[in-house]
């Protein structure tokens, strides 16, 4: 049996995307796919962040992953970190900032 994790559609806006209009999150809530719980138990053979430069975006309003955990993981990886007052889906609510971060990482790594 495969255990899958999902956010209830009626809680999706508040938990996952509170900085987006409800008209947008209502579509997202019913079209999302659950995450397999095994994704949290799988192990990698090597962690790329140990040898490859990394960039991180901390969403300070994230209720899906605690911002303190996001900061801790970014610090552990030595990531170049940017914070944004956003929900979990900063790539949707703040696309310009996310694009700038990605371009910055691309430029720095050639």
Helices and strands in order, then pairings?
Elements lengths: L3 E2 L6 H5 L5 H10 L3 E2 L18 E5 L7 H11 L2 E5 L5 H4 L1 H15 L1
Parallel strand pairs: 3-4
Antiparallel strand pairs: 1-2
- The overall strand count is 4
Uncertain ranges: none
Instruction: Choose one word for the global shape.
Output: globular
Largest sheet: 2 strands, antiparallel
As laid out across the biggest beta sheet, the strand order is: 1-2
What's the Cα radius of gyration? 16 Å
Assembly state (oligomeric): single chain
Strand content: 5-15%
Mean pLDDT: 91
Structural class call reads: alpha+beta
What is the helix content? 40-55%
Q: Write down the secondary-structure element order.
A: EHHEEHEHH
Can you count the helices?
A: 5
How far apart the termini lie comes to: 44 Å
InterPro entries: AB_hydrolase_1, AB_hydrolase_fold, Sec-Metab_Biosynth_Hydrolase
Keywords: Hydrolase
GO molecular function: hydrolase activity
Domain AB hydrolase-1: 15-98
In words, what does this structure look like?
The strands form 2 sheets. This protein has a two-stranded antiparallel sheet. Helix content is 41%, strand content 13%. The mean pLDDT is 91. It has 5 helices and 4 strands. The protein starts with a strand and ends with a helix. It has helices spanning 12-16, 22-31, 67-77, 90-93, 95-109; strands at residues 4-5, 35-36, 55-59, 80-84. It has a domain at 54-110. The chain has 110 residues and is an alpha+beta fold. α3 links the parallel β3 (55-59) and β4.
